[in-house]
Amino acid sequence: MLYATPEELNAMRGNRPQVAQDVLLRALRTSCRAIDRKTGRRPGGFGLANAPSARVYEVQGRVTPDGRLLVDDIGSTDGLIVEVETGTDTWSVLADVRHGPDNTLALDQPITYLVLAHRHRWPWRRIQVTARWGWPAVPEEIGMAALLLANRLYLRKDSPEGLVQTQEFGGVRLSRWDPDVEALLAPYVLPGIA
């Protein structure tokens, strides 16, 4: 999943010569995977999966004191099924599950937790969640960060030693991460990731 297109990257580059699509695609793929790692997401995590798939979670360590079971980002309720393990490789659908935060999908934000409608505890050891994983829409900040980082990666060919020549300052060492990219990504970094 790309968070921007090669056409957007070429347009962002302005009056510079157009670059071959395959070169831009490689820079965009690399920047998107770097963004996923930096924010603690699975590859393509800010996109929306085409079809539901199942993920199994150990309940212990994922439940907050108020009974929220933390899950990976869920971008759609289409095909959302929560099941509990009732035996070796047997699962039973759990009907009294709600998701939150409230109204997140309407705000193009993902579902990040599940709660039981009539209990505050998750008494099961493992659950299986089938969902369309990801975000309902790629956030604008993520798309812009992908473009900035992809352009930086493309231009890196001109600075193999990590130095950029400028008329005003001469040689300037590139920072590890672009401060603008970091600022765009900061609100999307999962807790415990940095």
What are its keywords?
alpha+beta, six-stranded antiparallel beta sheet, elongated
What's the gist of this structure?
Helix content is 25%, strand content 28%. It is α+β, with helices and mostly antiparallel strands and 194 residues long.
Description:
By secondary structure, this protein is an alpha+beta fold. 25% of the residues lie in helices and 28% in strands. The protein has four helices and eight strands. It has helices spanning 6-12, 21-39, 140-155, 179-185, and strands at residues 53-58, 69-87, 90-93, 97-100, 111-116, 126-133, 163-166, 170-173. β7 (163-166) and β8 form a beta hairpin. The chain is elongated. 22% of the residues are buried. The model has no long low-confidence stretch (mean pLDDT 87).
- Radius of gyration, rounded? 21 Å
Beta fraction: 25-35%
What is the structural class?
alpha+beta
Q: Specify the number of helices.
A: 4
Helix and strand sequence: HHEEEEEEHEEH
User: What coarse outline follows from CA principal-axis ratios?
Assistant: elongated
List the helices and strands and how they pair.
Blueprint: H1 6-12, H2 21-39, E1 53-58, E2 69-87, E3 90-93, E4 97-100, E5 111-116, E6 126-133, H3 140-155, E7 163-166, E8 170-173, H4 179-185
Antiparallel strand pairs: 1-6, 2-3, 2-5, 2-6, 4-5, 7-8
Helix pairs in contact: 1-2, 2-3, 3-4
